[in-house]
Design brief:
Helices cover 52% and strands 9% of the residues. The protein is α+β, with helices and mostly antiparallel strands and 490 residues long.
């Protein structure tokens, strides 16, 4: 695969250097390359026998063959008219070619590029080979003349990011006028799109697909951008597993009509994880057990589906192993039947919370011992305040802009050392305003998510002040919260 992509990259890059002498920039070259490769791939698709092959969606007078058979000025005129007219087409074709222009004015050089593209069978290339070709061109451009360049190596596999974005574009609800969002946090990447999953939540990752936008899905499959129908979720899970990362977390909300993919940059069984697991040494845990406990700690819970995904076991084995961990006193069972899920036991959560608070106290004492001495006799305060990354700060400000004035003032007035009852008051106000997940509340309140869930959200659920949005599916690790209609603000 690598040799194949390298050879094509070198061939295309060599010709880029020729065009650069004529004033064609690198960006213009890649743009023209994209248009021409797309036309070639549609032509290849049309020539395949059914059911794989499908009629071309491009008018015959502007298809690949109309370019390939011309040369000289006739080729340049044909290419210019092709771009102009395809940009006027309806649907996805018009979107792809909208405002496209020919940037290669020399007919002889345009003919050579057409011949280069025509010499390859593009639709037969693996999806990742196509990605490597474009990445290779980016790398060549970054090298410049001295061969020194900086190359970004993503922690999250490129295939996973691609599938998450393609999934968002393919299955989003286009009736809702909201964009697909790609948000980078300090510890994760989130891809959010309007439109909940039409498949049941517990069936995500299983074969089969229910398409909301059949024509868009067909085009993405035909040009090789999307995986085989119904396998995108499974590909994401498998690739994250190969990279030893926490599996993707999916949140489908019919109430909000939204779908979110959360990709954590957390390596399973890291040195920190091993140190945390050392407290259970007497339990003789297997690697599968260890992974399950780490995931339960990171995302707040684990279900049969998640256990099967991270450990590659069947449903019965997953059920037996989860019950075994419950029998050891490490997990507690929640829910019933298909809604069953497990959380870390209360003893473990309390121990982790105590360790967290002790670390906070040590940090505060080291940084400002005088303040700690002065506050020793005051009412207990919330010490989970986080400054947050620049991305988190932007999200925080975005939430504030959407809030009513009185709610925004209540959030801003909390500060770093609010009293617990004050935090509870604002949480209930926020959940009366709209349904919010623990990660969203953590961003708004600028608190540690795990601390917030254990210290505030769980007790508020127990007291009845808050309730789960999806009460029939509490196994969702990223449950959303709403204020109970009967709850009264303190």
């Amino acid at each position: 695969m690598a040799n194949q992509s390298s050879a094509i990259v070198q061939k295309l890059w060599n010709y880029c250097n020729v065009l650069r002498d004529d004033g064609v920039s690198y960006n213009d070259y890649v743009e023209q390359l994209t248009y021409l490769v797309f036309l070639k791939m549609v032509d290849e698709q049309a020539q395949l026998p059914p059911p794989v092959g499908k009629p071309s969606s491009i008018p015959k007078e502007y298809d690949w063959q109309s370019l390939r058979l011309k040369d000289g000025d006739a080729l340049e005129i044909q290419y210019r008219h092709t771009l102009e007219n395809l940009g006027k087409e309806k649907g996805l074709l018009g979107v792809i070619f909208r405002k496209s222009q020919n940037k290669i004015q020399d007919p002889a050089k345009l003919k050579r590029l057409v011949e280069l593209i025509n010499s390859e069978t593009w639709i037969g290339l693996d999806i990742d080979v196509k990605g490597e070709i474009y990445e290779g061109l980016l790398q060549k451009n970054a090298e410049g003349d001295n061969g020194i360049y900086r190359r970004e190596v993503p922690v999250i596999p490129r295939t996973v990011i691609r599938e998450a974005i393609v999934n968002a574009l393919m299955h989003r609800n286009y009736r809702i006028r909201q964009p697909v969002q790609i948000i980078r946090f300090s510890n994760r990447l989130e891809i959010r799109n309007p439109g909940h999953s039409l498949k049941p939540f517990d069936s995500l990752g299983e074969p089969g697909s229910i398409a909301r936008n059949e024509k868009i899905a067909a085009v993405l499959h035909d040009v090789g951008i999307a995986e085989t129908k119904g396998t995108g979720i499974r590909v994401m899970i498998d690739e994250m597993h190969k990279a030893n990362l926490t599996i993707p977390l999916f949140e489908s909300s019919p109430e909000r009509d939204s779908f979110t993919v959360k990709l954590l940059v957390h390596h399973l069984l890291s040195q920190e994880d091993v140190q945390w697991l050392a407290q259970f040494k007497q339990c003789n845990l297997s690697n599968d057990h260890a992974r399950a406990l780490i995931v339960a700690r990171e995302v707040g819970g684990i279900s049969n589906l998640i256990y099967r995904s991270i450990n590659r076991v069947d449903t019965l084995t997953a059920s037996q192993q989860l019950r075994h961990l419950r029998g050891l006193g490490l997990l507690e069972q929640k829910g019933k039947s298909s809604a069953t899920y497990y959380t870390l036991s209360s003893d473990i959560l309390e121990k982790d919370l105590s360790s967290y608070l002790a670390a906070q106290d040590s940090s505060n004492l080291a940084s400002n011992p005088t303040d700690n001495d002065l506050s020793s006799g005051l009412v207990s305060q919330d010490d989970s305040y986080l400054a947050g990354s620049s991305t988190d700060n932007k999200l925080y400000l975005n939430y504030l802009d959407q809030m009513p004035d009185d709610l925004r003032q209540a959030v801003e007035s909390l500060g770093e050392r609010a009293k617990p009852q004050e935090v509870n008051f604002v949480i209930i106000q926020l959940c009366q305003w709209q349904d919010l997940s623990s990660s969203e509340l953590a961003t708004i309140l600028r608190r540690n998510q795990v601390y917030l869930r254990n210290k505030y959200l769980n007790p508020l659920i127990t007291s009845g002040e808050l309730e789960y949005v999806r009460q029939g599916n509490p196994s969702d690790p990223h449950q959303a919260y709403r204020a109970n209609k009967r709850s009264k603000l303190m």
